[in-house]
Amino acid sequence: MDNFDAHKWFKKEYLGEGHTEDKSERDQAIRRFDQLSDDDKLKLAKIQAMMDRERSLREDDLNEINRDTFNMMEGMVNPETYKRFIDSLDDLLDDWYMEGFEKRDVVAYMEVIIPSN
Fold it and tell me: 40 burial class (0-12, 13-18, 19+ CB within 10 angstroms)?
């Protein structure tokens, strides 16, 4: 399983993206999970914890930014471009969080690389 993508597996199987409530599919997912190595199961647990933490932080952040401003900014970009950006950022965050960086580290990094107007 050298090229196993724990993040994609987690999104598809554990979070149920693109997944129906069909019992046979759930059973298949459970069997595939059981076949994972302990290392891959640990990766999945770390990703789940990171996603739970991010979900909580994201909700807190929306309290700091006006929800209308957030929605307006999100709606101003091409949906395809926005999706590619979010997917790429998600991949970067997975790598950084797995290495032990925290959200504040990422935000500080972004403040350096994003040019000011």
Answer: middle
Per-residue pLDDT of the chain (117 residues; tens, 9 = 90+): 456 666 666 666 666 555 455 567 777 878 888 888 888 888 878 887 777 777 666 666 666 677 788 788 888 999 899 889 989 999 999 999 888 898 889 888 988 998 877
E-assigned strand segments in 6-113: none
Q: How many CB atoms lie within 10 A of CB 51?
A: 19
Contacts 24+ apart (CB under 8 A), 13-19: 14/44, 14/48
The structure tokens listed for 65 are 């930014």
Q: Among 39, 48, 43, 42, which Cα is nearest to 15's?
A: 48
Q: Using alpha carbons, list the distances in angstroms from residue 23 to 11, 18, 28.
A: 18, 14, 9
Cβ contacts of residue 9 below 8 Å, gap of 6+? Answer: 32, 44
Torsion of CA 46, 48, 52, 57, to 10 degrees: 50
